[in-house]
Amino acid sequence: MAVVEVRQLEKSFKGKEAVKGLDFELQRGKVIALLGPNGAGKTTTLRMLSGLLKPTKGTIRFSETNENEDIRNHIGFLPQYPSFHSWMTGKEFLIYVGQLAHLSKDEAQERANELLEKVGIANAANQRIGKYSGGMKQRLGIAQAMIHQPQLLMLDEPVSSLDPIGRREVLQLMEELKEQTTILFSTHILGDAEEICDDLLLMHNGKILESGPIKELQIKHQTSLLEIIIEENPETYIDRLKAFESIEDCKLEKGKLLVAVNDMDKARTQILQAALQEKWPLIKFELRRTTLEEMFMKVVSG
């Protein structure tokens, strides 16, 4: 079931189109990556979804909401560069934002304790935010976005400014939180999207070029490529492999032979028969899975 449906969404600034006719749905209980290079329109899209920016055209419809209902009750949003009252403790801050979200003081306090535990900073609950690390602040930011139990949690580049340890902690937290809510996060870091997302929205120059489950998209853009590792002198096997009519090209990359084929079944049979008969020192032979980076470059280049 879709949490939100977006139809023909557009945004222009002084006549220049930043977002161009977006159509997509976000499915409940998924982690969705809004992936694209800097300037693709990701932040503008999130700001429209969060109600912070009015679309030039198009509609955004949340499930279980009336047409004129305030959508802020159903969403949580963490901007790329969140700001906090550094003189407050983490717990004080969450109680404060909970009351802003119309929770009673008791409800806000209970929810604050629950979330501090959930995001892993309960031991720093009474510490001033000014002394938090970058990773702790991002965790606190996610907690404040979750304070009112939203249907959709939106995170703008949540790990781009973190060190490797902080990045790992936040990615693990996002993986855990999808059991409670749908998560949409923007990123230009391909590895992060590939690691934790279920679905993908691939954005470039203000348009969604591809969307859907990441595994299905990888299959769709799968290239017919074999990866072969030979123990000794792999470069001497390039011409031998190119001699097969089922093979279009072969190159050596970081000690691996990457073999482009036009007939996978035939190439597999020919190569394995040759390796057996000629006693190749074969270590690895497998169909190479298309990486997100390869898929991204293929789609963007047209």
The CATH class assignment of the largest domain is: Alpha Beta
Q: Could you say which overall geometry the principal axes of the C-alpha atoms support?
A: elongated
Q: Determine the N-to-C terminus distance.
A: 31 Å
Gyration radius over CA: 24 Å
Arithmetic mean pLDDT: 90
CATH fold descriptor of the largest domain? Rossmann fold
Q: What strand line-up does the widest sheet have? A: 5-6-7-3-8-9
Structural class: alpha/beta
Helix and strand pattern:
EEEHEEHHHEHEHEEHEHEEHEH
- Architecture of the largest domain, CATH level 2? 3-Layer(aba) Sandwich
* CATH H-level homologous superfamily name of the largest domain: P-loop containing nucleotide triphosphate hydrolases
InterPro entries: AAA+_ATPase, ABC_transporter-like_ATP-bd, ABC_transporter-like_CS, DrrA1/2-like_C, P-loop_NTPase
Domain ABC transporter: 4-230
Pfam family, one: DrrA1-3_C
Family: Belongs to the ABC transporter superfamily.
Task: Write up this protein.
This protein has two domains: 2-74 and 150-219, P-loop containing nucleotide triphosphate hydrolases (Rossmann fold, 3-Layer(aba) Sandwich), CATH 3.40.50.300; 225-300, 2-Layer Sandwich (Alpha-Beta Plaits). Strand 8 and strand 9 form a beta hairpin. With 302 residues, it is of the alpha/beta class. It has helices at 42-49, 90-100, 105-118, 134-145, 164-177, 190-196, 214-220, 238-242, 264-277, 292-300, and strands at residues 2-13, 16-27, 31-35, 57-62, 75-78, 152-156, 182-187, 199-204, 207-213, 225-230, 247-253, 256-261, 282-287. It starts with a strand and ends with a helix. The protein is elongated, with a radius of gyration of 24 Å. The protein contains ten helices and 13 strands. 33% of the residues lie in helices and 29% in strands. The strands form three sheets. Strands 5-6-7-3-8-9 form a six-stranded mixed sheet, sandwiched between helices.
